[in-house]
Structures are given as structure tokens and as C-alpha cells.
Amino acid sequence: MKNKFSALLKKEIFSYAINPFYYIAAIVFCVFCAAGFFFAGQFFVEGKGSPSLSRFFLLMPYIASVFIPSLCLETKGSALSATLPYSARELFFLRIVSALIFFALAISPTALVPICVNFFGDVDGGALFTAYLGIIFFALSSISLCVFLSELVQNRAAYFFFSALVLSAINLAHFLPTLAQLSDFSAALVRSLSFAWHFDSAGKGVLDTRDFFFYLISAILFFELAVFAAETRKGKNYFSKKNALSTFTFLLILIFASLDSSRAYKRFDLSRSKQFSISPFTKNLISSAQEKIRITYYR
Question: Which residue from 15, 93, 270, 274 lies 20 to 30 Å from 149 (Cα-Cα)?
């Protein structure tokens, strides 16, 4: 079975490799990311350019809102996978893994941007590693979401536009509190649902376990929803006695994992300057304060 699964995975990757559409989509993605950094970010303007790549990586989630749904078009149209003796979970896992592998290969040319920037200033290696790791986890959640949406919308063209719209709305959700008057709880809730907002720390070189837990939990959630949608569409009972215990255990794991990730977490600032972390001196100063410290800032 393992050899058959590996063979099917190779087949899915090969279907990407022989399709010119995905090469064009990957090139467009890389060009837009680079152009947004060098030109829109005024990299070559004296006094405004910076070797910091945070702006370059923070553009990726928004451009990927169109690129990732296009990747899932290939797995959606895979007729061979549906005819093989695999369970729905195995097939969806295969679709997600194959799309994620191709996404990682497609963004590899963006490594030319740090190489070019390094000629003008030192590139922060720690921040570079964290950003690429974060965008892979971002893609994992986004691909899982798109695979789930592909089960809801059967028409390929309608699926593409619908999934691109939904993914764009999710990525832009954290801007809503700046446009509408929301309570603190509502604003925090809306921001926490945004995939791009959770990538913000990684794009700046900070590895926050809460963000990576969010990506893993959301990927698992959309994966199970895709299985549920597929089983329901085929007339099967997803909540059968066989799946009742595993489904209940799965929901408990998601709930407790979400609670624990927000209470017990770690932040690792891998950037060279450590500008997004409080220094040990400041921590000691705050801990020894006799009264509450209030900070007022203006935007």
C-alpha cells in the first residue's frame, strides 16, 4: 500500500510538472512578489530602500490568494485518484501533500530576491528561515481550505473564483477592525481568523508557536470538513459508529489544542536585530516597577 501511495503521489506531482499553466502561474507569483518589493517598496529609492525582507514576505499571502486556488485545480480534476481503492482521507491527504510540494517548488525562485538584496546589504538569515517556514505553513492551511471548497463547488471555474474570493476575504479580515468600530473581543476574534495576520510575525523573523498551531489546527479542521463533504455527497454516513469515537476525540483535541496554544506558547525572535522582542533589561525594568506601566502610542 505504501508503494502504491508513493506511486500515486509521483503521478500527481508529474501532472503538475507537465502542465504549462502551473509554470506560468508560478512565474507570475514570483514576479509579482519581487516587483512589489523592489518597485512598490521603493527599494532603489535613496533613503527608503532597506535590506530587510519583511515587506517582501508580507506580500506573499495576498498574492497567494489567487495562486493557491489555481494549484488545487489540478487535484480537483484528478480522475485517476478517484478510481483507486483509497479512502477519502487518503485521497485528500494526497491532494494536499502534492499541492504543498508543488507550492514549495514554485516559490523556490523567490530565493533570487534575497540573493540580489545581499549585494546591497546583509540579509538576515534567521528572519529568512522563519519567513519561508511560515509561508509553507500558511500554504498548508490555505490548500486545505481550497480542497474543502472544491468539494462544495463542483464547477471548476466557479470553484476557482469562489475559493480565491474566500481566501482573499480571510487574508484581509484583520483589516476590518481598522475600517469598522468593533469591540475589543470582536476585533481580536476577526484578526485571529486571518491567515495573513498569523503570518505577520514569521514574516518579520519571529517564530510564534501560536501561529504555527493555528495553521496546523485549521489545516486539520478543513481536511476533516473536506472528508465530511465528500462522504455526505456520496451518501455515506460520516458519523457512523466506526467514526463516532474518532470524531469526538478529534474535536476534543482541536478544542484543547486551541486553548493551550493561546495560554502556553513560545516566541523565538530569530532576527539579527531583535527589534520585535523586549530586551532582558526592559523585562527586568518592567518586573521591578512599583506601579502599572501605561504606554501611549500614535499611528
Answer: 15
